[in-house]
Amino acid sequence: MSQHDLLMRHKAVMPKWLSLFYNEPISIVSGDGRYVVDADGNRYLDFFGGILTTMTGYSVPEVVDAIVDQAKKMIHTSTLYLIEPMIELAERIAKLSNIDDAKVFFTTSGSEANDAALLFATAFRSSNQILAVRNSYHGRSFSSLAVTANPGYAATNLSPFQVFYILGGSRIRGPLAGLSDSEYIKRGVADLEDLLSTATSGQVAALIAEPIQGVGGFSLAPDGYFGAIKEVLDRHGILYISDEVQTGWGRTGENFWGYESHGVAPDLITFAKGLGNGLAMAGIVGRSEVIDAIPGTSISTFGGTPLVARGALANLEYLLSNDLQANSAKVGAHMITRFLNETKAIDTVADVRGKGLMIGIELCEAGSVVPSPAIASLVLEEAKSRGLLVGKGGIAGNVLRIAPPLSITLEEADHGIDALVEAIAAASKSL
Ligand code: PMP
């Protein structure tokens, strides 16, 4: 079966809004370490890791062995019974969360984790008023879409919440463009104070925010921004939900969770992607009184099953025992420095930013901050032809997203940087 024939079958049976990368989309059939292979046998260095999901790498023997061992014993039981690996994983995550008296609830996706967090927060506060951040992405379910501020993902204009958007997002255009860190923070806090007093009833349930906006193009507020925002929230009793779906598990290098660089203590943390290294493992960790606030009883058929919990435990153990957070800090800093230096002379590169192994390169029309999604698409093609996969994002789709598995070596990183800088130069010339 050729990849082209597979594309035809995909188009016939999958929804038209399910987006694909590349003019000739590829079918990835295997992977090892930081590399994947497509159905035609082409090998690629993967700088996107299944959208920041392949955290420790492809086919890590310790993770695979745990999954195979569990699959042979039993794949599924339900939360009506005691599941030891689920309990053990919850204990470890509760400890890692830095939240006192934390409880954990497992789901199967980041969208569902955010749904649940919003459910808990609205129940705890008896309010359906929610604050979110402009340029955010929190998922594709009904309530996670409702707090997503990205016109490209506006699948519905209906909402279970009344949502108010605080300032955040791009630092090169919009109301916060060009501001110093302290001015940015001051402006954001003043805007929040104004929003709370002029637009809300005062009884707001929660703020949901990504420490670094993922789909929004790896846009990041200055360190301390959400700490300053939280001081206002605390005065009003408003909860703080940190969506760590992309930023958790040491991805940002300097910290285990993205929220830590803001000096803030969240009430709820949502996680997904990297924990399962590709298994459907996600959830919420947070203050027990908030998580326990919903009335009635509940179950989850698929959240935290023995198979995914064993895989996630092995994956987490591998991450911690190999200190991949430190690797993310080291390799990430090297990558950002090289990208900054080597794209300086390319006038379509408007911004290089990020932390650890979460690096964004914003592409614009030459010498401007006018987004150029066309260049970004071309770069993806040029990189692919050089054996490198990268992601893209941002509201206009003009930001390259570089987020390899946290186990990437310096040598692999250098190899990918060489290819990507060449690809950006080639794409910029050809437009
Ligand atoms: N939150 C963030 C920050 C995300 O990046 C994503 C997925 N890109 C989600 C939530 C939704 O996760 P999922 O696709 O697993 O539903």
From TrEMBL:
EC class (word): transferase
Name the UniProt record assigns to this protein: alanine--glyoxylate transaminase
Similarity remark: Belongs to the class-III pyridoxal-phosphate-dependent aminotransferase family.
The encoding gene: davT2
Entry's Gene Ontology molecular function annotations: alanine-glyoxylate transaminase activity; pyridoxal phosphate binding
Keyword Cell wall biogenesis/degradation: no
Keywords: Aminotransferase, Pyridoxal phosphate, Transferase
Subunit structure: Homotetramer.
